[in-house]
Specification:
Helices cover about 10% and strands about 40% of the residues. The protein has 1 helix and 12 strands. The chain is flat. The protein is mostly beta strands. It has a domain at about 50-95 and about 105-145: Immunoglobulin-like (Sandwich). A hairpin with a 2-residue loop joins strand 11 and strand 12.
């Protein structure tokens, strides 16, 4: 099973109006301020931007590489709870310069937030995070039961 972006939904499609309700929620999300998802307590987590993430899998672990240039590693919070990995924090704005009536700012600043559903077969206690050159690397080791085992045929 792969790591996927966490997106809580009503999985009960047997109700006659569930698909319409899902469409209604998706349409409303287009008009919400900023990027947002509901957290565990139902509280809306709002972000100003979402960093790019690459996910890699090898025999022993999953690795997430999160682009966070200009973010102090102390401003990043990584948590794993109830099968969900959360990465959130802040990137502070640098001094904006205006000349001759124009301002040019292309980089995004403010609060960022990403959530991922973890596969069942991971060692949540062994998750490690490190940052180097503006890239946060989160290593999620697979549980021993998740690793393939070769069985000899006699």
């Amino acid at each position: 099973m792969a790591i996927v972006r966490y997106k809580p939904q009503n999985e009960n499609h047997t109700q006659p109006w569930s698909m319409l309700d899902q469409l209604y929620r998706e349409m409303n999300s287009l008009f919400e301020p900023g990027l947002g998802e509901r957290g565990e307590e139902g509280k809306l987590e709002v972000a100003d931007w979402a960093p790019a993430v690459d996910i890699k899998e090898n025999e022993s672990a999953y690795q997430l590489h999160v682009d966070l240039p200009g973010v102090d590693p102390k401003q990043v919070e990584v948590t794993a709870e109830h099968g969900v990995l959360e990465i959130k924090g802040d990137r502070n704005s640098e001094l904006k310069e205006s000349r001759d009536g124009y301002t040019r700012v292309e980089r995004q600043y403010g609060r960022f937030y990403r959530r991922f559903t973890l596969p069942d077969q991971v060692d949540a206690d062994g998750i490690k995070a490190s940052a180097e050159h503006g890239v946060l690397t989160v290593t999620i080791p697979k549980a021993a039961t998740a690793k393939p085992r070769r069985i000899e045929v006699s």
